[in-house]
Design goal:
The complex is a heterodimer of chains A (232) and B (298).
Chain A: E1 2-11, E2 14-24, E3 29-33, H1 40-47, E4 55-60, E5 63-64, H2 70-76, E6 78-81, H3 93-100, H4 109-118, H5 120-124, H6 135-147, E7 153-157, H7 165-180, E8 184-189, H8 192-198, E9 201-206, E10 209-215, H9 216-221, H10 223-230
Parallel strand pairs in A: 3-8, 3-9, 6-7, 7-8
Antiparallel strand pairs in A: 1-2, 1-4, 4-5, 9-10
Helix pairs in contact in A: 3-6
Chain B: H1 2-39, H2 46-63, H3 66-89, H4 97-119, E1 124-125, E2 135-138, E3 141-144, H5 145-167, H6 169-179, H7 181-186, H8 191-217, E4 219-220, H9 226-239, H10 244-263, H11 270-284
Antiparallel strand pairs in B: 1-4, 2-3
The chains are: A alpha/beta (232), B mainly alpha (298).
Chain lengths: 232, 298
């Protein structure tokens, strides 16, 4: 279980995250939804170790992992699929997968096979430079690359951003499939409908504070959520 | 007619000298281009690290046999490159690029002045490295064996470097980091070690370059590295800074052109040619032969 307790993050004097607490139980899909600038990305980047928190604690299965460097976080079993996919454009698809397993010393063959089973499109393009892939394929690669570290928890920052509706549907199916295979998912999304529909638990983040929480399906029916994020 | 005949006569020797000088430029240029590739920094101190390697060798042979002095020189040069990065560039990692560049210029002057201080500024006779300094006959001309060794050794080292970059985990991390620091960190890559390794490799190549260069040139003084350093920099820009094949092609091309110009009797203009080339490249194709489109790294 990933436990965030009173997390505060500041950027150049501005407090982007103002003391939020939430939990990601093992085996669940948890989503943080909220408008632009609510502090969602900052929260994930802080958990991943890219940003140092100004206060609060991050615990993984009871162990304090606050302020560890990104490589330590990865080796603890938490990985982040960054916003905008950020595949390495001039590395091949296979090389992108390999660097996802950078800290591992064991054989990668079975994992590469696993990722290729999840994303058969990637196998077809194994030797292609990642920069030549379509947006949807790049998102698959970014997810596959993150899976190569054999994470307990995979965090995804706006995986549906800029993708066609049909591709978005595919991405969410994959998220469910990964979760079925035992990986815990922490998802942030502007596509609140899809995210809440998929998630076991949802949190609503507004200007750095959590204002609502509940099972995903319940939040979907909440009037405030409907008004603010579902446009109805 | 006689001019052409005369040219044909000296052509093979000039080409050989050119390829040899080119190999030296290429070895130094690789250090510029690799550091630029990963940090987007022109490491102005690189030419001075090359010179320091010359002095280290000069002092090392006074204390130990040559076969020991060579690895010791390599080791100390590598250590110097590593230390310069840690002390002068690493603290500026999140500073604007201009600050890091100014720091590099500072290091360059610091090293030069340290060399003046320690050596008293007297040009020193570079030690004779047996075998490679032997005289041999080639194309009817007498030359040192190092002239022939240089291009061969250069090509061998470049191939080794390419294997390192294309086939090893470290190379993979270097290529990833040169594109996107943050995402590389998310993969677990320790950026600072990757950057350090880049400086270690660059300084190693500069040390090897110094053995070859000074065996030909035979005296070391604190500013002697400035010219080859600058020319290697031009070579890196010409080939497309950040590109490894570019640095190699640029190095050989400049070496060959310079020596051809000298062979035609225009020695005075050989340096001018190199820098005219720099201006021309910057005007016409600023990304060089194999350069990537300059993208700002996020």
């Amino acid at each position: 279980m990933l436990k965030i307790n009173d997390l505060k993050v500041s950027y150049g004097g501005i407090e982007a995250v103002k003391g939020i607490s939430f939990e990601v139980p093992n085996g669940q899909i948890v989503t943080l939804i909220g408008a632009n600038g609510a502090g969602k990305s900052t929260t994930l980047r802080t958990i991943a170790g890219l940003v140092r928190p100004a206060g609060g604690h991050i615990q993984l299965d009871g162990e304090d992992i606050t302020g560890l460097s990104p490589d330590k976080i990865v080796s603890k079993g938490i990985t982040l699929v960054p916003e905008g996919r950020r595949v390495f454009p001039d590395l091949t698809v296979l090389e992108n997968l390999r660097i996802g397993a950078y800290l591992r010393k064991d054989s990668l063959d079975s994992d590469i096979k696993w990722v290729y089973e999840l994303f058969p499109r990637l196998q077809e393009r194994s030797w292609q430079a990642a920069g030549t892939l379509s947006g949807g394929e790049q998102q698959m690669l970014a997810v596959g690359r993150a899976l190569m570290s054999r994470p307990k928890i995979i965090m995804m920052d706006e995986p549906s951003l800029g993708l066609a509706p049909l591709v978005v549907k595919g991405i969410f199916e994959i998220i469910r499939e990964i979760n079925r295979q035992g990986v815990t998912v922490l998802l942030i999304e502007q596509n609140a409908y899809m995210a809440l529909h998929t998630a076991h638990t949802g949190y609503v983040l507004e200007t750095g504070k959590i204002t609502l929480t509940g099972p995903g399906k319940e939040l979907l029916r909440n009037e405030d959520v409907k008004r603010a994020y579902l446009g109805s | 007619m006689s001019v052409i005949l005369q040219l044909l006569n000296v052509l093979p020797a000039a080409l050989l000298a050119g390829v040899s000088a080119g190999g030296q430029y290429a070895l130094i240029a690789l250090g510029y281009t690799m550091v630029y590739g990963i940090l987007r920094l022109i490491n102005f101190a690189h030419g001075d690290i090359f010179t320091v390697a010359g002095f280290v060798m000069f002092y090392a042979v006074t204390a130990m046999p040559v076969y020991l002095a060579i690895p010791v020189t390599i080791l100390l040069t590598v250590l110097l490159g590593f230390t310069v990065e840690r002390l002068a560039y690493k603290p500026l990692r999140s500073a604007p690029r201009m600050s890091v560049m100014i720091s590099a210029i500072g290091v360059s002057y610091l090293l030069q002045n340290l060399m003046w201080y320690i050596t008293g500024g007297q040009p020193q006779q570079y030690p004779v490295i047996p075998w490679i300094s032997d005289k041999i006959q080639i194309f009817g001309q007498e030359t040192k064996r190092v002239t022939v060794i240089t291009p061969l050794l250069t090509v061998a080292l470049i191939l080794l470097l390419l294997v390192l970059i294309k086939r090893t985990k470290l190379g993979l991390a270097m290529r990833a980091a040169s594109r996107d620091f943050e995402t590389a960190r998310l993969m677990g890559v320790k950026i600072n070690s990757v950057i350090s390794m880049t400086f270690v490799i660059g300084s190693f190549l500069a040390a090897v370059g110094s053995f070859l260069f000074f065996s030909n040139y035979s005296t070391v003084s604190p500013t002697v590295g400035t010219m080859p350093g600058l020319k290697a920099f031009v070579a890196a820009v010409f080939g497309g800074i950040g590109s490894i094949p570019g640095a190699v092609v640029g190095g050989f091309l400049i070496g060959i052109c310079e020596n051809l110009i000298r062979a035609m009797g225009y020695s005075t203009f050989s340096d001018a040619f190199t820098f005219a080339l720099l201006i021309l490249v910057l005007c016409l194709k600023p990304t060089g032969l194999f350069g990537e489109k300059l993208e700002e790294k996020v």
